[in-house]
Amino acid sequence: MGRRRRNKIPEGLFKADIESLSHEGRGVAHIEGKTIFIENALPGEQVEFKYVSKRAKFDQGVAENIITANEQRIEPECQYFGYCGGCSLQHMTPDAQLAHKQSVLLEQFTHLGNVEPESVLPPLEGPSFGYRHKARLAAKHVIKKEKVLVGFREKRSPFVADITECKVLHPDVGLKFTALQQLIESLSIYNQIPQIEAAVSDNGTALVFRHLADFTDEDIAKLNAFEDEHQLKLYLQPGGYDSVERLNKSDTDELFYKLDDHDITIYFKPVDFTQINVEINQKMLNLAIELLEPNKDENILDLFCGVGNFTLPLALKAKTVVGIEGDTGLVERAKINASKNNIENVEFYAADLAELDKSKKFMKGTYDKILLDPARTGAKEIIEALNIKNVKRIVYVSCNPATLARDAGILVNEKGFKLTKAGVMDMFPHTTHVESIAVFEK
Description:
Helix content is 22%, strand content 28%. It contains 9 helices and 22 strands. By secondary structure, the protein is α/β, with parallel strands linked by helices.
């Protein structure tokens, strides 16, 4: 069997009239009846673009010149926009970005769930830059460049982008790329460090160095000196997440963030899942509680509860809250957080919410209300398995509008709920990631 022939990519610049914006934030045009998705292009614009790929059903391109500009186009603040793959929408005003994300959410509800919210919530907004408190950075020694690169991947490429800063990351991380590159270059295993995981907490910034070979004593001395100079907390990760350990073992301080409106402190490990946007997390939490309307007579179920981010504040207003999470490490941290905050009306259980055991204690409980905050795959299995006929209200926090829409279709069209409210939350400005919240009532 012969190799599949690739379509030849035309050379030069071509004109296109942009009709709309795709879910991925690319301009949509048609040339001779064929759809083409064009990066850096906005609806209503006429652009000159170059092709980057041709496929059987659609082509892809990048706008090089804007002939007629959309009034919501702005100059990207980051010098690496278009080269680094971290951001896709910096050429749009913040209002335009939010409007696009809201349109994606509503379209998914209609097309995938066959549902429509009775009302649309005002979007939650926060800082546009310096907001990101969690990130996984790639590290790579590039022989041809004779240097180590640290950062995100190039757009449309597996290669690490050659950048010196990131404006969306917290400055403790985003302004340290050059220092990190120089540090790794000075180490004996400079070509055995594939990634650095960053976690910014209220009491310091943690950097976890994944390493595929052992550090020498001289390397450890350099890491300690770097930690002191930049006032960071360094961790080493020789294997899986359970191998992560503090470089400076005398520093026993735990990472934490405070939920000021609820007088709660959440402790976590640097590789734990926590929300990346601290300000939006605070607003999201308050909105979720407002929408769920817990009271002291109600039992609440918090599914995909993590370290207790929603569970513990809800427990202050409910009779009981049961938190369920698939990661046993997060469940242990949630229990510790409940204890440290003197919250006793909560229970936490570890369970795989995609492959449910109906004999589990929490599956037999009776709940008045439910909060859901699943991963991108959604909550279809638990929604279909759980007895929710007595549940009055569900608040669903989602990081994927497609699976939210699918699950909304099940709740509305099969389980007897109505979708009363939904809206977007700008957890990831300048990206096409859509964070949203929806309310379902019997």
